[in-house]
Amino acid sequence: MRPESGSRRAFLGWGMAGSAAAVALPASGAPGPGAEGCDETFKGKEYPVYCAHEHWGSIGPLMGPEGFRADLEAGALPSRPVSVWDLVFDPYGGGWLRSEGVDWDIPAREAGKSDFFAWWGKAPEQALASVTPALRRHRTTGVFQCTARGVELLHGERLEGLDCAAWSAADRKVGEAYGALCGWYRQAMKKASLRNLIRPVHPEYYLRGMDTPAGREEASFTRSVLRVEGFLDLWRERSPRREVLADAVGVDPVDAKSWREFIGRVLDLAARSGAVGIKQLQAYSRSLDFQPREDGAVAFRGNLDAEQRRAFEDWVVHACCAQANDRGWPFQCHVGTNNLAESSPLPLEPLARRYPRMALVQLHCWPFAKEAGYLAKVIPNMHIDACWQPILNPAFLRESLDTWLGYVPVSKLMFSNDATSVEMAAGAADITRRAVWDAVSRRGGECGLGPEAVGETVKDMFHNNAARLYGGEPV
Length: 475
Ligand SMILES: [Zn+2]
Description:
The chain is of the alpha/beta class. The protein is 48% helix and 9% strand. It has a domain at 182-470: TIM Barrel (Alpha-Beta Barrel), CATH 3.20.20. Helix 9 (142-155) crosses helix 20, helix 14 crosses helix 15 (306-327) and helix 19 runs parallel beside helix 20 (422-446). The radius of gyration is 23 Å and the shape is globular.
């Protein structure tokens, strides 16, 4: 179903900075325009979104034995044609379906096929019908909304009606687009007004594929942040991963001195290949209370017990932060969902104070919007990137904006997408643009800000605040 002309007019008003029409946008769940309306939807182009934290490529056809190849190898290409189902069954959407006990391969096997994708290839109506009840239950969630909206905006097909013809057409278009992955990313970024792609990658990324044509093409529009959480596991006596990295940088880390040198050299290697910061996701496995540890109180290799491991992890995180501080690099730190019991950002305060030249960017922050806001308000080098919130639930983002706008300096707020595909990023950015525009307009109205001031604030939040931290010209 195509939107009514009224809602279309509202979309047309979207890009008019500060205009009353822009404030009258449809809510983020309202129907968007069809294929012919896409460029009009992206009239918000004067508010380009700086993508400082993206996981594009975390989809099935890029999975390898060590994890997603996009994070381990420069210029990694899909090992099979990409399907629209790879975007929907991504680690977030697919993961949350599985959390509910859904396994799309079981009915496929009962139908005599090897897996869901084989079934979809042979009998799309039946394959879609088998997952329709599950998709009906999930299609109001943030992740489905973001992916479906992105597929609509970039490919012109609507998924939420669960209509087989639309899914088949989307599948064909997605497959064609991903036939030239980097070309597709660039084209989609232009269309969705997404800029400055930065992806978190493992250290191995800088050792593999950098000098291939695909690696060079990727490097022409992609920068990275180095994922340092892998270092926290390198204390084991036998560690093939450590051996490869030690060989590559010419230092085998065995004690405090060699570990510092090892980290420095891996960061140098990353910096030469486009890294602009570091990132860790310890919030998923332990608390964010990284205690400073004396060199002599840490065991660096061997059969470490839980307490020794903890000390080693703390030491490595501080060593990485010291390096980031020396280089003036940002440190992206996952905060909040998952591991809710231990992922409050409050223990990060001493870490941020100890390394004042390192911008500590709190990622996601839900459900700790107030705590994250407090830290961003009182500590000069602490910031917030609300990426992933619309993918969790657009309402979380709106609540967070209400919390932050009356409390935190707007210079501290950023809005990447943390999406697993450029489609999900386009959908998330669209939802974010509406939510931020709406919140700033409303708050600005209460504070007596004129349209121009509202527009400038939104531009800073989407782009210029991140450009100050990670580099790039303001818009
Ligand atoms: Zn992430």
